[in-house]
Amino acid sequence: MSIVLSPGDVKLRDGRSVDFANLDIAATAPCLRVVADAVAELLPFYGSVHRGAGALSERCTREYEQARETVADLLGCGAGDTVVFTRNTTDAFNLLARALPAGTTVVTFDTEHHANLLPWADVVRLPAPRSAEEAVASLTRCLYNTGKSTLVSVTAASNVTGELWPVARLAAVAHRFGARIAVDAAQLAPHAPVSLAELGADYVAFSGHKIYAPFGAGVLVGRADWLDAAEPYLAGGGASANVAADGTVRWATGPARHEAGTPNLLGAVALATALRALHDADTHEQALVNRLRAGLAGLPHVEELRLFGPEAPRVGIVSFAVAGEDPGELAVRLGRDHGIGVRTGLFCAHPLTRRLLAEAATRLGAVDVPTQAVRASLGLGTTAEHVDRLLAALDR
Ligand code: PMP
C-alpha cells in the first residue's frame, strides 16, 4: 500500500483503466496516510486554539503549540528563533516583507518564483547566474555596493528546473556583509530535511501542501527580532494582548502577534506531522529523476530546461520543451490517453521559464519559441512505471 493517498485507477479514452500517474507533485503533493490519520484523530476534539478554557480548547491549544515545537525542533531553531504559522509560502514572504526594518533592501535573483519576487518594496533583482560560482560572485559584487541593511532572499530548489541553489555559500556571503538571508524552501522541504544551520538561513519559508499535508498552512521560521518589532501582519483577535476603551491596542508578543484570527489547527498539525514523517521517508526519488532525465535526453524532439550544467544536483522536478507540440494539448492527451498528470505553463516564474524556453527552442532548432513548458515532478508515490509511461507517451 502506498504511503500517500491516491485517486486510484483512472479510465482512459480507449477504455483501459490505469493507476493515475501524478507527475505534478511539485504543485501540490498528495496527502501522506499518517497525516490523514493524524487529522482524522483530531477531528472529534475540534475546538478553538488559544480561546476558551474547556477541555477541547485546551487540547487543541496544546496540539497547535506542539506542532510549532515540532517544526522548531526539526529545523533546529535556537533561542532567538520563532515559528509563525502562515497560509503558505507566499503568505510567509509577504509577512516577512512587512516585517523588514525601514530602509532594508532585498536582493534576489530574477529567476525566483513570484512568491519571492513580488512581495518586496525595495528590491534588487540580480540576473540569472549560469553556475553556483556565478551566483556567489554576483551576490558578492552586489552586497559590496548595497551594504548592511540588506535581506538576501533566494530559493533552495527551483520549481522550474529542480536545480539546487548554493544556499549555504550565498548565506556565507550575506553574513560576511552583515546581511541576512531568507530561503524559499517550498521545493526543498518535500525532498530533503530543512535545517536552518545547514542552509545558513536566517529565515526559511515553505508550504504544508507541498510536503504531503493538506492545503492551508505554511510556515515562516527564523529570527524573532524583526518579527517581534514589526506591526502585526493582520490586525485582530489573537494578535492583540489588550484593547483599551479608547481603542489603544497593546499587541501580543511572540508568534501570536502575526497569527490574528482563529488559528488553523488542523493545518499546523498536518504540516508538522508531514515534516516529521518526511524525515524518515525513503523516496527513491534520485533514481527516478535520473531515469526520467536519461529518457528525455534520448528523445530528439524534447529539450530539458536548465539554468546550470546538466550535472547540477537537483530535486525531482524536470521541465521541458517539446518541438512542434502545443503543451496544453499535449497535457490533455497525456491525461486522457495515458492517465498521466503533468503541469504546463510558466510555473509562476515567468522571467526564468521564458528565458529557458527560448534557449531550449534554439537547441531544438525550433523556429517558434513555445509559450509554455511541460513539467513533470516526482515524489512519494511515484513509480518507475509512471516515469516509463510518460517517456513512452512522449516518444509516440
Ligand atoms: N516558491 C516556490 C519555489 C514554489 O514552487 C511555490 C509553489 N509553486 C511557492 C514558492 C509558493 O507556494 P504557495 O503557492 O504554497 O504559497
- Per the CATH scheme, the topology name of the largest domain is Aspartate Aminotransferase, domain 2
Number of domains: 2
Measure the end-to-end span: 31 Å
Give the overall pLDDT as a whole number: 95
Number of DSSP strands?
17
CATH class of the largest domain: Alpha Beta
Number of helices: 12
Q: Which of globular, elongated, flat, extended, rod-shaped describes the shape? A: globular
Name given to the CATH homologous superfamily of the largest domain: Type I PLP-dependent aspartate aminotransferase-like (Major domain)
Biggest sheet features: 7 strands, mixed
Radius of gyration, in Å, reads: 22 Å
Strand content: 15-25%
Relative helix content: 25-40%
Characterization of the model:
The protein has 396 residues and is an alpha/beta fold. The protein folds into two domains: 9-30 and 282-395, Alpha-Beta Complex (Aspartate Aminotransferase, domain 1), CATH 3.90.1150; 33-280, 3-Layer(aba) Sandwich (Aspartate Aminotransferase, domain 2), CATH 3.40.640.10. The protein has twelve helices and 17 strands. The chain has a seven-stranded mixed β-sheet with strand order 4-10-9-8-7-5-6, sandwiched between helices. A four-stranded antiparallel β-sheet has the order 13-14-17-16. Strand 1 and strand 2 (17-19) form a beta hairpin. Bound molecules: 4'-deoxy-4'-aminopyridoxal-5'-phosphate. 4'-deoxy-4'-aminopyridoxal-5'-phosphate is lined by residues 88-90, 113, 115, 155, 159, 184, 186-187, 207, 348.
